[in-house]
C-alpha cells in the first residue's frame, strides 16, 4: 500500500514538473521574441480555422459601449468613439489605449474605424482582466501621408493638423477622466501604424509604448524615441505598405532604442491581424510604464 502511494505521488510530481517546464519554455520563447533589438521571423502560410473564427468573432462584437463624440477646435474636427473601463473606481487611475485606423475607414460616420484593434478590448476576458480606456478616432481625411526619404530610399510618413487635434484633446481627457498619465499607449494598423509613428514623434512625452502594425515610419525624431518601447509588426509580402520603411526604422533603432520587430514572412497586408497577435498585444502593452 505504501509503495503504491509513493508511486502515485511520484507520478503527480512528474506531471507537475512537465507542466511547469512547459510553461517556462513558452514564457521563455515569448520573452525572447519581445527582447529589444531583436527581429523574429514567423513562417505561417495560413491562419488556423480557430484563429480565423476568433477574428471573425471580434469583428462581430457590439460596440455600443464605445460612446460617440467629436473633437473640434473650430478649424478641424475629428469624430471618435470612447470606451471606459467596465467599472471605474474614483480613487484609481486606468491606462488609455489610443487606436488609429487604416485608410479604408476614413470618413465621418463614426463607425468605420471600429475594427479589430478597437473591438479586441471588448472581449469579455479583456474587459475583466484589462480595465482600460480606449479612444478610437475617425479621421475625415488621411491622418498620415507618405513621401520618399531620399537619403534612406524608403517611404517616410508625416501627419497633419487632425492628428494634432487628437493629441491636444488627450490632454483634456487626462484632466476629465481617471486616466493614468504614465500608462498611455498608441497603436494602429496600416495608415494607423504610420499615424502611430507620427504620434510618438510629435509627443514622445505622452506615450508609454507604441505598436506599429504594417505602417510607414517617421524618421526625423528617432533620437527622441530611444527610451520608448516600440513593437513593429509587418508582413514580408505586404504590397500596400512595403515593409522596407519599418525595417529601416528597426535597423537604425535596434542598437540605441527599445524596439523589436516581428516579421511575418508569409503574410500580406490585410491578413496580418491574427488571433495570436491580438492575444499578445494587451499582455505586452499594459506592462509598459513611463
TrEMBL record:
Signal recorded as keyword: yes
Peptidase S9 prolyl oligopeptidase catalytic domain: residues covered: 166-227
Keywords: Hydrolase, Signal
Keyword Nucleus set for record: no
UniProt-recorded Gene Ontology molecular function terms: hydrolase activity
Pfam families listed in its UniProt record: Peptidase_S9
InterPro entries: AB_hydrolase_fold, Peptidase_S9_cat, Plant_Biomass_Hydrol_Est
SUPFAM superfamilies: alpha/beta-Hydrolases
Listed PANTHER family: BLL1128 PROTEIN, UNNAMED PRODUCT-RELATED
Protein name: Alpha/beta fold hydrolase
Organism: Epilithonimonas vandammei
